[in-house]
Amino acid sequence: MSDHEASETQISACVEAIWLGCGLTPPSGSELDRARDTLRATMREGRMIPRQIEKTVAPMYGPRRDIET
Amino acid sequence: MAPVPTAPDDPGDDSAGLSVGDASRRIAAGQLSPLDLLDACFARIDAVDGVIRSYLRMDRDAARRAARAASERAAQNRRLGPLDGIPFAVKDNIYTSGMDTTGGSRVPQRHDPAMQANLVARLTAAGAVLIGKLNTWEYGTGNASVSFDLPHPPARNPWNPAHFTGGSSTGAGAAVAAGTALFAIGTDTGGSVRLPAAACGLVGLKPTFGRITRHGIMPNCWSFDTPGPLTLTVEDAALVYDALAGFDPEDPVSLRSPVDPASPQINASVAGLRVGYVTNLEAQGIAPTRPILQALARAAEALAALGVEVIEVALPVAPSEYRQISAPINRSESFSIHEYDYMQHRDKMGAALRSKLETGMYMRAADYLAALRQRGELVRRTDALFDGFDALLLPMTYITAPPITDDAAVRSFTTGSAGSAFSLTGHPAIALPAGFGPDGLPVSVQLAAGFRQEATLLRIAHSLERHLNPHAVRATPARILGMASKEGMTDV
Question: The complex's ipTM?
Fold first, then answer.
């Protein structure tokens, strides 16, 4: 199920689970509404990242040896 | 060729209006003392900083001591180099011993207060005079909005104090445009040196990733953070770059390859070079506004007149679409860096930083890694363009600096810019002033070059500057105060 299909209640439950999992007190009221929007937008942003099908392509991270060659 | 839009007022008659290069030549000729130059900056600070809010804090006594020593060296004809006696300031995410570093935040910081960033040490060893710490978006980052809930009011654009400075090096843009410092050092993660430069009519250089040391700088995003100078002219940018560039064993990503000094080469001919004129600028229906497009056309025309071969080219994706890959990386790494502060002190953070970090908290590891894998592909495809071109010409921003209270326009100025492309890839890029738009605010273009090709980049920019911005000036105190009054800024 995409987050487009998830209900407000489901997204709220996700927010609460993440905050509790991080050892934080979950937001409530308008802060919960805002957090729900932020989570939905973040999930959408993540889905927009194209995927590499080729398994041997590694993440580009750390010192950039490619710049010096 | 269309006439070049010029600055809306004269440069003023105090030495704080001078470029670094001109001030240095006057010091060398015995026509100007570093102490008098520092006093001219102090006079501008006293006159306008209540409006433009470029500084968070300064140490005038320490600056005077440094300027006095520089004055003595100049009098004895033993200057340390072209930056000896030149007043500068740094963004408040750069650690300075003897002066607090807060990142513009209420959150208590835990670094050793004696720590001095190696780039500050390099500049002071070259004789430059540190005035103080400059305003910034909290922790040098944010969610592209201006925060009005920080301990200090936001910096204002000297060309019109009702308008945005560009972020996140907000105070750096304001200070150099107003002459409260002759040059400034900012940090660029997604455009944070080049955006304030574009908004404030300055030169902003983001060098190749790893070319200038990041030691002693509060991190924002390990994969992209790059410090760089904001200056009045390209010559000034080259002088500061030459003082800063080079390997630093204390920075794990520092480049080991030797530096090609830029200053000795900036006057060399550019005839015969090839510049790609980027055409795929529109993304999601957003295209550069007419003054920006006109500036690009003037730039292309001027380059052709200089004997440069200008050829239309397309980036792998539209410039602002690189952000689709860079933003998830930036947010994830920022959250990792500031997780403890978020957990313990988010109630002390402004809304913009809190919002960004919360996004990072929600980002899935799989999405972060997918973005890093795409990054490699975009780097390769973008870098391949430099096999055929010495530089690329494109906009920096798509609009001029919007009113600071227009949140939607401020977000658009930042997120719709072409800044993140070269932050993602690590190529050097420079924002270059191109006059003023019909709204009286600066217009800018951007040039980018291949890895470690700063000398060529600055050479092309210097040639272009003569056509686009031949009479670079800072905003005078009279203009700043006059515009503030006209805009009804009653808290001046």
Answer: 0.93
